[in-house]
Backbone:
């Protein structure tokens, strides 16, 4: 099953309603949903990858070439490339070669799935705390 | 530096404004922020822990004892306890012993920090896609 075929979890944040409307709060994740979501969190469970994601998202036009990213780290280009590959394989970023450089941008759909899991639960818990 | 002393990243979601107002989108994470956030994502980068978090949040009253959780998994109680310990050590859940059982509930502040990182970026990217 490709990532594109996965159902998007309802991203609606309605903190005015009962807490049970938020996905994490009263709709326990199924085993298969958890198995599909965990690798996304694993991919960003690393300081370098979190910063890469942040730098790409922040770069002019929402995309960055590896030449824009290496200067922010005290790491070798192959190490940066490894981390970019992990993010790409998880589906968090996409890339395209243009001439000498490969350009990267964030895949908003995948980020939305992660946000749909955490965001409503966080909002509901804040509203009921 | 304790988790309590960390500044909360602005959780404001304003998709009507320029994409640069969302934390992940135009405010690249600092190295120290990334180092502090990565372990939170690592703690939930596991299907069992994602489901535990979901089951706890969904349980009546927002808290659950380990006796409420073991039935959902084909795992031994010590394995469940190990995963609960990882979540607790990351600060995602808190716990308290009452008589025979230990009860667990979600720490909304920590979830809010994760949501503040992903949510606004997701919303801004969706708005600019």
Residues:
């Amino acid at each position: 099953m490709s990532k594109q075929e996965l159902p998007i979890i309802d991203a609606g944040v309605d903190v005015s309603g009962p807490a049970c409307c938020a996905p994490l709060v009263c709709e326990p994740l199924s085993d298969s949903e958890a198995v599909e979501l965990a690798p996304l969190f694993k991919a960003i469970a690393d300081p370098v990858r979190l910063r890469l994601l942040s730098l790409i998202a922040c770069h002019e036009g929402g995309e960055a070439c590896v030449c824009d990213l290496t200067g922010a780290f005290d790491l070798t280009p192959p190490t940066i490339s490894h981390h970019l590959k992990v993010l790409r394989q998880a589906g968090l970023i996409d890339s395209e070669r243009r001439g000498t450089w490969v350009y990267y941008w964030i895949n908003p759909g995948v980020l939305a799935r992660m946000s749909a899991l955490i965001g409503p639960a966080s909002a509901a818990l804040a509203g009921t705390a």
Notes: The first strand of chain B starts at residue 63 and ends at 65. Residues 12 and 120 of chain B are 7 Å apart (CA to CA). The two ends of chain B are 38 Å apart (CA to CA).
